[in-house]
Each structure stands twice: as structure tokens, then as C-alpha cells.
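INPUT
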Amino acid sequence: MDKSVLVIGGGVAGITAALKLANSGVRVVLVEKSPELGGAVVSYCCKATEQCNKCSVCVANQKMEELWSAPNLSLFTSSAIGKVARGEGGFHITVTRKPTYVDDNKCVRCKLCTEKCPTKPSSIFLPPPHSPLQSYVIDTDRCLYFQSKKCKLCQEVCPAEAINLSQKAGEENFQVGALVVASGFSPFDSSRKKRYGYGVYPDVITALELEEQLRIEGKLSRPSDGSQPKQVAFIQCFGSRDAHVGNNYCSRVCCTYTMRLANLLKFKHPDSSITIFYMDIQTFGKEFEQFYQQCRQKIQFIRDMPSLIQQDGDNQLLITYQDRKEGKVEQSNFDLAVLSVGLCPGEDTEKLVELLGLQTNEHGFFKSLSPLQTNETEAEGIFLAGTCQGPRDISESVAHSLGAAEKALAYLGAE
Amino acid sequence: MAEEKRIGLFLCNCGGSLNAHLDLKRLKEYSQGLLQVVYVEELRTFCLPEDSQRIASIIKKENLSGVVLAGCPHRNSESIASAIARESNLNQHLITFAPIREHCAWAYPQRETATLKAEKMLASAVARNILLHPLEEEELPAEKSVLIIGGGIGGIQTALELSRMGFGAIILEKKPHLGGLMKGTAAPFDSVTQPLELISSRIETATKDPGIDILTSSELIKLEGEPGRFQAHIKQKGKKKTITAGAIVAAAGYLVSFPKESYGFPLSERVITQSQLSAILADEKKTQALLGGDKGKGKNLIFILGMGGESTPLTTAFALKVSSLIKEKYNWNIFIIYNNIKVAGEGLEALFRQCRSQGIILLRYDESRPGFTVSKEKIDIRLSGLLTSLEKEEEVTLPGHLMVVEERIEPEPDFENLAQLLGINVDPQGFLQKDNPHLFPIATNKAGVFVMGSCHHPMLLPFIMEEAAATALHIAEQLSEGKIRVFKERAMVDKGKCTLCLTCIRLCPHNAIFYDRAAVISEALCQGCGVCASECPAEAIEIRNYTTHQLMAEIGVSRKAS
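OUTPUT
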């Protein structure tokens, strides 16, 4: 059998599995649908205060750097799995690649294309440093070549011959011995729970939006008027442990990330007051209980799921909840409400399930062979890694992907 | 003074784009005037294979013994250097970089200033390169067997995975039999896995496996050596023996204890711990005697969680599974009293809901903790602040006829000793510590020693199985083909200067230093971090290619150049 593996998904899980396999002497094809590697983690912010709070967001960046010097590894970004056929010698897979026009493997980031581009501002550019996309992109709406086929200056000046404006969507065929699925998760669709006013009131945001704001701007401001919020509410279990939306499971990561975010906000803005509305706090793993006890000293915890979020005349949010100590319905004002969105099955799960002949479990994640064999699937030679199998935090995803790599190696007999 | 070097300096104009920012012609002339520089060339893009090949051929033609690449701090610099090294047979550690693109060309608006700074950087890079020594890698023979400490499910599973990959495994268990904590667990893990069946079948497979040796009633008393060939001194039933192993895995378990002070009353016939109940459930007769017949009619069986600190998914899972099982078979009113229900594990939230629909009553308390009154027939549990009715509630008293209390999960008391023997760290709670749980799960501060499973922190079964696979893979990668790669003489000890003050031995974060009339640094354990070199009061230790002499030369020349 051919000692090669195709990894679907270039997030932390996919990268970890790919690196491990490549370093073990297996030929690896890594397929990622977006133009850039890193997956969900690249939009998260570092949660360090005066000390590291072990959120592991830096892992992705480090892993990606390792990827550049890995042997036996071909990367396919902006690509998707087209056809899969099982046959002699393993899997025959067709990968379709959207045109990117700039080959990131060749690009040396010399800036020459940006400098020479006749449009002002340049229509070929490197996105700002905080953007998850860190390779040169062409704005096809402004580029003269795509408007009138007139200019090919960037392609001509590129010393690395990394630019190909006439690139077409390509198809490549691979024959591999095994598959690792690491297609990740999707955050819960916040517009599904209307009572919390997401999408209606600008100051109701998701935790992901908060992460991104902190990553890019390094500080917190209200989307409505740009002021710094004094009263911040976090609402837990948004889309998790909720039979009404069909998510009869705990997403595991939300209590952890919320407390780290709340801790970070309190550190950055000591005068702000932070409230966490919750059902049950999920502490597990190393030293997290101690972290929770520390958080209780500076953050208010209210044990109730609010019934309604409204906006009053002064541009303030009004959250209705029940005070269980007093047994009364209360309403409190907040400047900002953050919804701690849960982890849902990845958007490509169904498509991949069909292509690969797999199954989903009762929650819609990929179904593993048994509760203890979380890497294996019912299909021989296809292995699962990371959050595509169920909610996991970053370090658990890394360990799970190593397991997938091990199982794939054993299957190939590559040891 | 060492013999003259022949240094080649390559300037990259980054596809011509640097000409606008730097006077490369002047830099070329300047470089030619630098000491021991025999060859200078301007290239367009040395990150591309064609240029790397050209550099390699020039190294061979000009017989260069050092190379400085002046250009960008390229994300691929290491692989470029290794590609050039491979082609030219020049040691990779003699190829250095001077990042004049980011540090000069792009940093200064004026060409003149940028060029001046670039001159200094080139002079510095050359001055250091003159003093560099090659750093050789060496392959040492490695034992293809692994010592696993702990014969619980984690240890056994790791041994099985290793054996499947062609490695030998030796399981060291201090108790007279394998099985660990799982041996006393009767609670089903899920609909298909019965822990007792699982552990017995795994023990059976491991016992039959010719690649796995099992040493029961044994413990580690001393560990010597380095990755690839550790010498483990073992005591088995009073007899001592020595085992050679390529790597060590700590797969110990944890301890459970009843936190009496949190409840205010002792264990009794009416108050049993989760592990006591578990042991009873494993025995059909005892189960009948405790729960069967009419024993439960009109009586309350109470599970209580979260009294001695936060509950964990492990103990919560036990309470949910067992209560669901008892409710199905026996005639008891079951209550689960909790603070935070820990459902962060696959299927636990669904189980929580199933318990409710089975008629198990789940009550939660908050800051006001339950109070207890113990009498002969029953235990009265006083609860307040738990009802969801909108009126301010009063206290409720619930009579308990059988109470199952949660135990506190604690590190084993010998972890500290074990950590010391292995040369690894413990965390503030006393569990074994990994080096970086996020980046390198399983690895510890000491090369060749790994930590997996519940001795790091108590974890649910699927995660233990995942870690077992990951551990086996890590080890297979390092010891494959019975060889281990190490850097030769990365840290150097000047025996004449060493006063044996042991500072380095105490401070080495990787426990890589020993002594034998002077400090001795293990090449296989050393990670080249440089802590010993910077702390040695006698300045007897230096890290190859980061010696004081080399660094001073680098700094000194740039000062002179101004």
C-alpha cells in the first residue's frame, strides 16, 4: 500500500497530524478550504494577563511555522475534496483548487508587486498583521488585469515568479493509503436564539467577536458608540446543553474561555464590572478549579440563564433574569452582552460524511468507531482528529490528532 | 588562535527590491574588506532552490569554511541552511544569517542610514562567524524497550500500542496485580464498555503479548542514564534488579479520600463513598444485600456532590450512571444533590437528562451548603436556596437512608518521590507536570521521560486512550530503528575551572547534569538552553556557538564600526 495520507483541514488538529505523519516518513497532502492555514484558532486572542493563562492560542502559530520546514508535505490551500473513490492501493481523491493567483510557497514577501502596482492603493497587498490571512492577495474588483486584462506588471516584476494571473481553478488527483479528517467545528449560529437580540442590538456580541476585537485592537469597545463598556455580561451555554436548539451536549470549552476572557478584561480595565450568567460551571483539567476560585474573587457569578435581552432608551442593554436567592425576577443594565457560543458540527461535516461514506453521531459530529476508539471510524483507513469528532479544547485536540496520526501509521504499517 | 577561516558573504537584493533602500554596491565593497572574508556575491533570491544550489557550489569551489547570508529573516531560514549544508557538506551551524532587509532596509527611511546599519550588522555577523565551530549530530544506539510505571488502564494501553509498533514494554506495578483504579470500578463507562470487562480483557492481552513484560509488586528505586539507555533500578518483592530502557513513561493513577471535614460526620453503614459503592456493585450478592428486595421501598438513596471542593466530570459521571442503573433495577427514591453538575464529557449531558426523565430527583445548592443531622435511622439533610419557585423559599429537610459521598481526588503521596527519581516536576497540587501541556502533550522537562493519563490530572477514559496512542507515537518517533540523534558537545565544561559547586546541577531545568570530579553534561538530555552557562559562577560552562568570546566579538565589532 502507498505510504501516504491525505489530511482534510488545516487547523490545529490537521496541522498536528500532518506534521507528525510527515516527520514519520509518510508523504502527506494537507487540504484546507480557506486560503490560509490555522483554522479557528487564528482569530482568537492571547489571554495572558501578568502571567500566561494557558489558553494555548499561540500553539497554532508555532505549529504553522514548523509546517514550513516539514519534509514530504504538500499543502493545498483554497482547496476542497471533490471526489473520493476507494480502490486498488487505497483512496483515489480529486482535490479542486480555487485560483489564488499568488503562490504562497514561492512568495518571498519582497513587496515589489505592491510597490509597482499602478492602482492606488495597490490591488495586490499583504493583509494587515492581525489578519488571519498572511499571504499576498489580489483584490480582483480593482485589479486592472481582472477588469480589462490590461496590466500584468506584478507578474512581470515578481522575482520569485510567484504570481500567475491567468491561473485557473485546478484539479489534482492523489492516491493515498489513508485519510485523516480534521475538518473542525462551526460556532453556534447566534441568530437562532432570538430572545437575546443578537443581530438586532449592536452591543450584543459573540465571544468570537470579542476574541477578534481583543486580538486586533487589544482593547474593548462597544460596537454601538465605541466607548469602553463598564458593565459587561457574559451568557454561558449559548447553544450548548440546550435541547430546544437540538444541542443536547456540553461544549466543554466555553466556561474555560469565558473565564479567561473575563479575567483578561478585568486586567485590562480594572474599573469594569463583569457578570457571568451560568447554569453550572464546568471545571475539568489541570488547575482549572483554582483558576475558577480566583475568578470568583473579582467577577460576579449569577446562576441563571437570562430570559430576555432588550435595549432601553439610553442605548443600554436590559437583561431580565431571576435572582434565585431572593426568588424575584430582576432586570439589570449592561453596556455589553457577550454570548458564549458553543461548538457545533463543522459546516462541511455532512458533505464529507457523504463523500467518505461515514456517519454522524446523535449530535451531528463525526461518529467514531466506539466511545473509546475516538480516532477510528467504521470505514477502514479513515481516521478522525480534533473537534470534528466532538467538542475539545486546543490541547486535547493536539493529543487527539497525535492519536489519529498513530492510528494512520499503524494502518499503513509504516513503522 | 584558530586557523584562518574562509568566509563567504552573500547579499540578497530580494528580487531587486532592496536596491532602493540599501546601497548594495557599497555593502559589497565593504564586505570584501572584512577580515577573513574571501568571497562576496550579490544574489537575487537565495530562498529559492536555484540560488541555494549556487551557494552550495560556490562553497565547494571556493572551499569556504563559513557562510553569512544577508537578506531577510526568512521563515524558511533553517530549511535553507540545511539544504545548503546538505548540498555542500558544510556544517549547518556554520551558516548564519544577517537580517538586513527587515532590520535595515525597511526600518529606516534614509538609504544612507540603512546602509550604515547594514554595514555594522555585516561586520558583526562576520566577526561571530569567524569564531563558530561546527556542531555535529551523532546517532547513538537506543534500546527499543520502554519502562512504563503504573499498571492501570493507561499504562497497559500504552504498552499495547508500543508493542504493536514493534517496541518492547515493561510494566512496573507496585501492587501485586495489574488493573489500577479501574479494577474497582463497576460503573459502566457507556452503553457498550463495561470497565471490569475492558480492564480484564486488556490485562489478558497484555499478559499474552510476548513484547510486554509485567513486573508486579515492584517499584522504581533509582534511575540513571539518558534517553536511549536508561538504567532503572527496581525492587521486586525485596529483590533488586536493573532494567535497561530507551524511554520511561509515568502512567500512575491517583488517590481518593473522603473529606470528612467538609461533611462533619464520618463514614458509616449509612454513609458510603463512591468507591465503596463501586466495590459493592461489582459483587452481585453484596449488591442485593444493600439495595435489593424491599430495602429501598419508601427510602431515599442520596448521592451528594461538590462538598469537598468542586466536583469533577469523573465523580459526576459515576453518580449519574450508577443512579440511573439502580433506578432501573431497584426500588429506591434517588436524589442527586450537587453544586455544579460537571457534564463536560461526551454523552454526560444526555445522561443527566435521562436521569431526570427516569424520575431521579436532581437538586442543586448554591452558596448555602447543605447541613446534616445524623441519627440512628437516618441522616437529615437540610437544604435551602435550591427551589425554583418564585417565592423566597424556606429550608427543606430531606431524610436520607443511604448516602453516597463523593471523594476528593488527590495526587498519590509518592508522586513527589517518583518525580524526583525521574527528574521531572510536580505541579502545585502534587500531580506530575508536563513540560508544556499544549505544545508537547506527554513530554516532560526531561528528555526521554513522558507523563500520560491521570497522574497529570484526573481524566475521563476516552482521553486516557487518546494519550496512550499519542505517547506511543512520540516514543516511536524518537527511538525508531533503535537509534537516537543527539548533538555532540553542545554544552562544554572546562574541567579545570569547575569547582564542583553544583550550581548547574541544581538549576538545570532538564536534569541533564551529573558530576564525576567535575560537572558532566549528558548530551542526550541537554536541550542547549544555556541556563548552566549563564549561572556558573566559575564560568566553566559554555554553550557551543554562544560562548562569551563569540558574543563579545559580535558586539565589540559593531561598536568599533561606529
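end of record. Residues 100-167 of chain A form a domain with the Alpha-Beta Plaits fold (CATH 3.30.70.20).
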